[in-house]
Amino acid sequence: GDSVTQMEGPVTLSEEAFLTINCTYTATGYPSLFWYVQYPGEGLQLLLKATKADDKGSNKGFEATYRKETTSFHLEKGSVQVSDSAVYFCALSDPYNTGFQKLVFGTGTRLLVSP
Amino acid sequence: DVKVTQSSRYLVKRTGEKVFLECVQDMDHENMFWYRQDPGLGLRLIYFSYDVKMKEKGDIPEGYSVSREKKERFSLILESASTNQTSMYLCASSPGQESYGYTFGSGTRLTVV
After folding, report:
1. Residue B98: which of A32, A42, A46 has the nearest Cβ?
2. What is the predicted pLDDT for the residue at B39?
3. pLDDT over 90 at A41, yes or no
4. Nearest CA of chain A to the CA of B24: how many Å?
5. Which of A6, B19, B102, B108 has the fewest CB atoms within 10 Å, i.e. is most exposed?
6. Which pLDDT tens digit goes with each residue over B80-110?
7. CA-to-CA dists, residue A80 to A36, A49, B113, angstroms
8. Which string of b and e fits B33-42 if b means at least 16 CB within 10 Å?
9. Where are the beta strands (DSSP E) in A22-80?
10. CB contact under 8 A, B106 and A43
11. pLDDT for the residue numbered A8
12. Collapsing DSSP states into helix, strand and coil, what is residue B88?
C-alpha cells in the first residue's frame, strides 16, 4: 500500500540556518503531496502542496518540489526562525489506490530552532 | 475564516465510560475524518465519512464508532473507554477534490483513567 517515510527527528538548528526535512513516498498512482505543520498544542495546518511531477509548493518561505523520479518531496527553508519550531508532517493522497481522497501521513519530524 | 471545531480541548474520563467527541465544520465539506495521534506513531485513521449517514473504517476502528447525521457534524464514540485510548484525537474535513488536502481541528486530548 501507499506509504510516506520521513527523517527521524528532532532536527535541531540555530536561527537563520538552512533547513531540509526529507520525505519519500511509495504510491501506486500519481498522488498529490502535502506538508502539514503542527505547532505546540494545536492541530495540523496545511503548509504547502504539489499535485503533479515537478510542481513546487511554497508558503511562508518554505518550499518543496515534487520529484517523481526519486519519489521525494523534501521540505526546505533558507533561514529558519524560532517561531518555525513545530512538528512537520509529509502526506500523500492517492485516489487511484484508495478510490477515495484519503491522506496517508508520515510519522512527523520535530524541528527545534534555538536563538 | 473557515473552521473545524472540536468540542473539547481536554477531557478526562473513567475506564468503561461511553465517550463522545464532537466535531463541526462550517465549510460544507463532503468528507470528514477522525485520527488519533500518538508519539512515534504519527496519525492513524480511525473512521471517515464521505456523506451524511455514510461511514468507512480506517486503519484502527476497533473500540470506536462514529455518527454523521448532518453534513457539518461528525461524532466519534468510544463505546467503553479504556486506558489504551488515551491519546490526542484530531478531526479533519475536506471537499471532494483530492488535491485540496484537509482542514484540521485543534484536537482533543483525551485521558482515560
Report:
1. A32
2. 85
3. no
4. 14
5. B19
6. 999 999 999 999 998 876 567 789 999 999 9
7. 16, 20, 40
8. bbbbbeeeeb
9. 23-26, 32-38, 44-50, 56-59, 62-65, 75-77
10. yes
11. 83
12. strand
